[in-house]
Structure prediction request, 574 residues.
Amino acid sequence: MTDIHAKEQTNIKFTVESLNLFYGDFQALNDINLTIEKNEITALIGPSGCGKSTFLKTLNRMNDLEPNVTINGNIYLDSVDVNKDMDAIELRKRVSMVFQQPNPFPKSVYDNVAYGPRINGIRKKTQLDEIVERSLKQAAIWDEVKDRLHKSALGLSGGQQQRLCIARTLALEPEVILMDEPTSALDPISTMKIEDLASELKKNYTIVIVTHNMQQASRISDKTAFFLLGNLVEFDTTITLFSQPSDKRTEEYITGRFG
Amino acid sequence: MSTHKTGTLPSAKQSAFQKFKNEYFWRYLIITCGLFIILLTLGIGFFLVVKGSGTFTEFHHSVWEFLFSSDWSPMDSTTESGGGVGAAIYIFGSISTCTLALLFVAPFSITSAILMTEIAPNSGTKIFQPAIEIFVGIPSVVYGWIGLTVLVPFIKHLFHPKMGGYSVLAASIVLAVMIFPTITTVAADAIRSVSSDYRKAAYGMGSTRWQVIYKVIIPAATPGILTGVILGLARAFGEALAVAMVIGKTRAFPANILSPTNNLTAAIASDMGNSATGGEQNMALWTMALLLFIISIFFIFLIHIISGKEKKKHA
Prediction:
């Protein structure tokens, strides 16, 4: 937006400055400042109710859908203020979300993945076929569903459904994928598959993942942000944060003394 | 509960009675009530079959004649027979008015349901929903009366049909207004029960509100919406009084939607009381009642198939 933010440093995807968020009178986020870099996985950790999911939602303005939310401060995506200078619909196409509960539509596997391209006006069958196949392959689920593309997606297992939801998001070709505890409803093997997938996807996408599983954060993320009671307590490279936390509260949390 | 007293009362008889009172009495009462309702339904069905089949067994008319002939001249006496019992005009009258009513009302109902659930959920539940519930409570004679005093003269004024404003159109519009709340409330419930996970998923991918409604919520709610439509249709088929007041009660196929005609329910309501019990006409009217019963059972069957299929598909 302004020259100040059009820094030469092109690696930065999101810049968050002095972000405060209120649910009515309750302040859920307190002066958050951080930057999210391109082609990295940024993990947001912290105990329940610390504001990590709330923060994630501000990145693609999903909180617009909730009543009584007020925000101040700035969030820049590629130097453009997402709250002031961007349309929420356009923003969510560039910054798409995968949720905690796998939530495929009650449609066929094919129609789920083709949903995004279709709302963007793609009608040609050959083009849709291509996008569906590519997205399913990227989400490492093609082999499991290629023979049942036209059957209901609700017949898949939970882990398959979640990878389908990721494929559905990839079909939009977003720049950033937000994942809100994507594996907390899944078994360990499915979790492992999603983690491998995330590590693979960061080559082409920027990923922000909320997790309450610290092992998961340390396994897959490049940077980790630790939230507590609406404050960003510590934000650093994952290695530093887990090996030499600078804040005592971070240390207590990652060593399992609370949370 | 009875265990408090069993310590002080060694009598086994007493505790058995207590047990019966506390546990079995209500259970059996509820089972009895439930069974009574089932028996009542079966009884009505049995009664209609016995009475309604007289036309075919006692008076030897064919089912074909009853359904497809328009010669309606049954003998109104217990001793004579040999008249015609073709109910095709009545059947056609019912089908045409109900179909038209459905065509008129379905778009309004479905858009209203969307409005009150998705677009304006707050005023939807505070204003729209109660207003529609009041609709349901209005007696059908009131609808008929308004049809008779407002709609019929209006149609007459507007189109100048030969026979006045009594017409298929007037009956269809009255029916449409009457079934509007049924379809709207059932459709709104269906839309409300669509998992909010689908909404979140769709919004999270940059859908506009219209895309969320049109591409995600409506398809997911379709079985429920169809159930509402069928319930409305069943109600329209069974409505007698309001229709009888505006349809013109003329025993002829309607030439167009501005012509008067008659339908099954209006014919039964107006002729049943005057016919000789056990006579040919009386029996033919019973057969028409049986037909209505079969149609409503068919609709209910249809609803079960639609909802069952949907459950199976996503099991």
Remarks:
- The domain at 12-254 of chain A is CATH 3.40.50.300 (Rossmann fold).
- DSSP finds ten helices and ten strands in chain A.
- Chain A touches chain B at residues 60, 62, 65, 89-94, 96-99, 101, 103-107, 115-116, 118-119, 152, 154-155, 165, 168-169, 172, 178 (CB under 8 Å).
